[in-house]
Amino acid sequence: AMGFDKGNQSVGQAKVRFRKAPKSENVYIKLLVKLYRFLARRTDAKFNSVVLKRLFMSRTNRPPVSISQLAKNMKGKEGKIAVVVGTVTNDIRLLDESALKSTVCCLKITDNARARIVASGGEVITFDQLALRAPTGSNCILIRGPLKAREVYKHFGRAPGVPHSSTKPYTRNSTKSRKFESARGRRGSCGFKV
Question: How far is CA 129 from the centre of its chain?
């Protein structure tokens, strides 16, 4: 009898499944998806398909970008548009606001971040305005936030307590834990240190 071939699932690797539409119920996101679906189909620009793919992403996969990261990424790129498929947030540690004098396109922006960008002579636009200005994404810089900055990633990796592991343990009171999983085995003066 012939065997049943399930494709690449038969060797234990499930197919890579990715979103074909946003899970969000937000009507504005859905309208942007409609717009960028059209642009991705009708233009050859990879920019539009990347923006479309990022519009589908979950919130954890759209990490926020601070204005200091914007300033760093836009250094020496005057006249270009910074594009963030996500939120732009303020950073009180950024003192030199001259680098913010650029056009920023994002899904969401905090009030303080918007005020600082506008005050330094920049402007904040939405994705529908961007589609009119740069339908193929010319002169646009796509910027992403740090995905692994979420606190959960500190807990991933080799088990806490095994040698050469710097993984953070989930303790009973992880924010204020002074005496849980922080003495024996975690410092040289108490038994041993891993």
Answer: 22
Dihedral of the CA atoms 104, 105, 108, 111 (nearest 10)? Answer: 30
How many CA within 13 A on the CB side of residue 39?
Answer: 25
Q: Are 22 and 33 in contact (CB under 8 A)?
A: yes
Question: Quick count: other Cβ atoms within 10 Å of Cβ 85?
Answer: 25
Q: What is the pTM of this model?
A: 0.82
Say what the pLDDT of residue 2 is.
57
In DSSP terms, which residues pair with 105 in a beta bridge? 83, 125
How far apart are alpha carbons 83 and 70 in whole angstroms? 10
Q: Which tokens sit at 15? A: 């197919």
How many Å from the N-terminal Cα to the C-terminal Cα in the chain? 55
Going along 15-121, which residue ranges are E strands? 65-66, 81-89, 103-109
Higher pLDDT, 48 or 160: 48
- Closest to 80 measured CA to CA, from 140, 126, 130: 140
Structure tokens at 25: 């119920």
CA distances to 99, 108, 137 from 119, rounded to whole Å, are 12, 18, 26
